[in-house]
Amino acid sequence: MAVRARRSELATPASNDWMFDRSAAAGADMVFLDLEDACAPAEREAARGKAAKALNELDWGTTTRAIRMNGVDTRWAYGDVIEVVTAARENLDVIVVPKVRRARDVWWVDVLLTQLEETLGLEKQIALEVLIEEVEGLQYVDEIAHSSPRLEAIIFGAGDFSASQGARVDTNFDPVVDYPGDLWHYARSRIMVAARAAGIEAIDAPFPHYKDPEAYRVACDRAGAMGYAGKWAIHPSQVEIANTAFAPTPDEIAHAQRVVAAYREAEASGRGATGLDGMLVDAAHLRHSETVARKAALLGL
Ligand code: GLV
Ligand code: MG
């Protein structure tokens, strides 16, 4: 069951501290200060201190505060975790682990965090999200989804995944326009199923065309239809679109309440199914409606 809202996960390069105020005030459900690919390699070590300062000093409101560390196969990984957790302590809620290939990658971060939390006497456990963006990670996504009790969500990283797959997404071939169907449908579905089977959430990929809000909205709606709980945002202007797209509307909430009431009434009179506005209501519809109600409660709607 979801423990925090994740409709929008806004990425901000941790080296670019002039962007932090705007990100903190963007209204995102989560902001992650990125120590990985949005930072130039030469900036990655200095960016840790900038991230920790922002986590400690800015007013984040209800936004979940996160960092994206570097992958566990890089020389930066241990320093990212140790330096930022030591400096930010309880002001860091989530660490996003990129390029996860196997469950052991997550275990490595989990063990390091456990040692740090004990040493520092932290009262709150830091949660994890992982990026599936390597073909090997997709192949082992089931074991990854069950790799740590800290793990709350799996994000689909379509950019690196496409490279890992060897997909042709160059200037002569627009995968959205020129490919019949959805080039990433298999990966999205696979991640979705693994996440739900482990009782955690799936978050959809970054959308690079930040000046095309309509297309971003379509991408949000498609991911939401599959069961994704939210989407990565690469620009503050995408946050509101994702927040709206992944929240149930007042009509959906009202309908869900009517479905639950109709089902309960049928149940009380010994029936397992009934009708509402000409539509069947049975146990499966009850589950859908309960999901809508849970989402609405999580978002305070
Ligand atoms: C995100 O990190 C991606 O590669 O899409
Ligand atoms: Mg990536």
Automatic annotation (TrEMBL):
Binding site for Mg(2+): 133, 160
Annotated residues for binding of substrate: 68, 133
Species annotation: Pseudonocardia sediminis
Residue ranges of every copy of the HpcH/HpaI aldolase/citrate lyase domain listed in the record: 12-236
Classification via InterPro entries: Aldolase/citrate-lyase_domain, Citrate_lyase_beta/mcl1/mcl2, Pyrv/PenolPyrv_kinase-like_dom, Pyrv_kinase-like_dom_sf
GO terms for biological process, alphabetical: oxaloacetate metabolic process
Keywords noted in UniProt: Lyase, Magnesium, Metal-binding
Entry's Gene Ontology molecular function annotations: lyase activity; magnesium ion binding
Keyword Secreted attached: no
Cofactor: Mg(2+)
Protein name: Citrate lyase subunit beta/citryl-CoA lyase
